[in-house]
Amino acid sequence: MKRSIRSAAILLALAILPAGVTGGPARAEEGKAPGRAQGIGPLDADGDGKVSDQERAAARERQKKLREERMRQLDTDGDGKISDPERAAARERQEQRRAEFLAKYDTDGDGRLSPTEREAARADGALPGRGQGRGGKAGGAGAGGKAGVPEAGGGEGD
User: How many angstroms separate the CA atoms of 138 and 149, rounded?
Assistant: First the structure.
């Protein structure tokens, strides 16, 4: 059971976070450190620089709905558990999306996105912009000045 829950959580993170699930645009307000404003921006719906109890509750509700939807996508037989075959099928779908993403945006074919390739993907909406959730941070420079390729976003049904 613990393995199923852990696997579901990992698959959920792989599928949702790179897809830019942020709940709204990041806000870098004047006079505030950009890192802090960008960090709470998705939660700070009214833009006051603080996360209220209502904003926190709304964020929890969004996350709950996303988890439930992801479980419905992964648990294809509807038994409330993610079986090994369901997990394997989800991995295959994820790898297929990643291959399609790379085929489209990795123009030099090295299996990684350069800053230019990443910007092209952002311009097309395939990656979130800088500071928008973890997907926007996915690409710190790696070997050769290239960042690791994030998993392609989107739901299971695309």
Answer: 8
- Tens of pLDDT, residue by residue over 26-85, are 444 444 444 454 567 788 888 888 899 999 999 999 999 999 999 999 999 999 999 999
Residue 157 within a domain:
no
Question: Tokens at residue 97, please?
Answer: 């999306």
In the block, tokens 């390739």 appear at 117
**Position 151 in a domain:** no
Phi first, then psi, for residue 155 (nearest 5°) are: -85, 175
Measure the CA–CA gap between 135 and 114, rounded to whole angstroms.
15
Report how far residue 117's alpha carbon sits from residue 122's, in angstroms, rounded to the nearest whole number: 9
Q: Is residue 154 part of a domain?
A: no
- Give the three-class secondary structure for 22: coil
Which residues lie closer than 8 Å to 157 by C-beta, 6 or more apart?
Answer: 73
Residue 144 CB contacts under 8 Å (≥ 6 apart), including other chains? 112
Does residue 76 lie in a domain region? yes
As for how many domains the chain has, the answer is: 1
Backbone angles phi, psi at 23, to 5 degrees: 80, 0
Range of the domain at 107: 2-145
